[in-house]
Design a protein that fits this description.
Elements: H1 2-18, H2 25-30, H3 37-42, E1 51-63, E2 69-75, E3 93-98, E4 112-127, E5 130-138, E6 141-144, H4 170-179
Parallel strand pairs: 3-5
Antiparallel strand pairs: 1-2, 1-4, 2-3, 4-5, 4-6
């Protein structure tokens, strides 16, 4: 009976760990949940030093001469776990300054990212023909979300069960099985 209880406790802990936020608790406590991205976007200098948690989709990653990395992010609202939610509209873009080298192949365009850090101010850059105000955020903790692939499409999360044998005619299934062409 004790083994069964231990098993259920283990399953419960694994289940709860899957629902945990990706940003550490101490940074979440420091972050100001009342400060919205829209407010900070309008005047980033007024909120310098405030800790926030923002996320979105990477647009560009640039490694700089001083060993830091600058990431341009298309902002998206976050879910309860901290994952960028593509079903809600963006309120702009922001820059993340990481104090270390981050590989541009891993932090490439289109990947989802969640960042916790302090607002450092603003930086103006060209976006098309206009000067665009970017809030600049220090990257104290950066979480790069995993990519999921499903056959026949780009990298997205595919929530349904996919049977890889379904795409092959019945005679190919037996051919692969018996002749070991894996």
């Amino acid at each position: 009976m004790k083994r069964l209880q231990g098993f259920f406790i283990l399953i419960l802990l694994l289940f709860l760990a899957g629902c945990a936020h990706v940003i550490s608790k101490d940074l979440r406590v420091k972050a100001d949940p009342s400060l919205t991205f829209k407010e900070a976007f309008q005047n980033p200098n007024a909120y310098q030093g405030k800790t926030v948690i923002w996320g979105g989709e990477i647009i560009k990653t640039t490694n700089q001469k001083d060993g830091t990395t600058l990431i341009e992010v298309f902002q998206l609202p976050l879910s309860r776990r901290g994952e960028p939610n593509e079903t809600y509209p963006s309120e702009g873009r922001f820059l993340v300054l990481a104090e270390k080298y981050l590989d541009p192949h891993l932090f490439r365009r289109g990947r989802k990212i969640t960042v916790a850090g302090e607002i450092l101010g603003e930086e103006f850059r060209k976006l098309g023909e206009m000067d665009y105000r970017y809030p600049l955020l220090s990257g104290k903790q950066i979480h790069l979300w995993r990519e999921y692939y499903y056959p026949g499409g780009p990298y997205y999360y595919y929530p349904y069960y996919y049977d890889p044998w379904w795409d092959y005619p019945i005679y190919w299934r037996f051919h692969f099985y018996y002749h070991r062409h894996w």
